[in-house]
Amino acid sequence: MKVTAHNLGKRFNREWVFRNFNYEFAPGKTFAITGSNGSGKSTLLQILWGQMLPSEGQINYSDRDAATLYHSVGIATPYMDLIDEFTFDEMIRFHFKFKKPRIPVESIIEKTELISSRHKVISTFSSGMRQRLKLTLALYAEVDLLFLDEPCTNLDRPSIAWYHRNLEALPPSVTVFIASNQEHEYPAKSEILNILNYK
Q: To 5 degrees, how large is the angle CA 169–CA 170–CA 171?
């Protein structure tokens, strides 16, 4: 799915986070949205996936309208909530009742490499395990657009390696957006956009 931004701008009160953002996001590419902390990376992602309205400009999706876009979007962010009362297994099965999985759910559980924790309650999980679960929910959904905001937050080195293996295994048609100011969070082949260029 091609995503085209026309003169996007976002303002909070009198302060513009960014303005005059024009870009065509081609299908199947990976885009790294870079910039310092608080520069507006997460805000841009939320506008692109349809959670937040821009203050000016518009976004066009090649084969979807904004009302049905959520069917085609996968999201993982550090600020995304999980259902703490669920077990790992229950959270995955619940999520994939609403999102079509790319592979069988049992295979997804195995690929998390956390299968020994599948019956543990999420409230007992470390921050790194919670982040890996969030990434799993996004990476294994059958979507056209994948949005990852600071994906390696709280991940140790083996988990970062796991993340990159799964990122490389995505279908070639998926368009990936990664908001990060850390180079190890996005592939070297990524097309880089610095949000500071749109201030």
A: 115
Instruction: Report strand pairing: 56-61 vs 73-76.
Output: unpaired
**Is the distance from CB of 56 to CB of 9 less than 8 angstroms?**
yes
pLDDT one-digit tens code per residue, 150-161: 999 999 999 999
Phi, psi (degrees; rounded to nearest 5) at 132: -65, -35
Look at residue 69 in the predicted model and tell me its pLDDT. Answer: 82
**What are the two backbone dihedrals, phi and then psi, of residue 97, each rounded to the nearest 5 degrees?**
-80, -20
Residue 141: name the closest of 90, 67, 73 by CA.
73
CA 92 to chain centre: 17
Cross-strand pairs, 181: none
Report the CATH number that the domain containing residue 23 is assigned in CATH: 3.40.50.300
Total number of domains in the chain:
1
Q: Which residue segment(s) compose the domain that 29 sits in?
A: 3-198
Counts of helices then strands in the chain (DSSP H, E): 5, 8
Q: What is the mean pLDDT of residues 48-60?
A: 94
Are 19 and 9 contacting, i.e. CB atoms less than 8 angstroms apart?
yes
User: Average model confidence (pLDDT) for the chain?
Assistant: 94
Q: Which residues contact 21 (CB under 8 A, 6 or more apart)?
A: 5, 7, 8, 9, 44, 57, 198
Q: What is the mean pLDDT of residues 171-184?
A: 96
- Which helix (H) or strand (E) covers residue 155, if one does? none
* pLDDT score for 107: 96
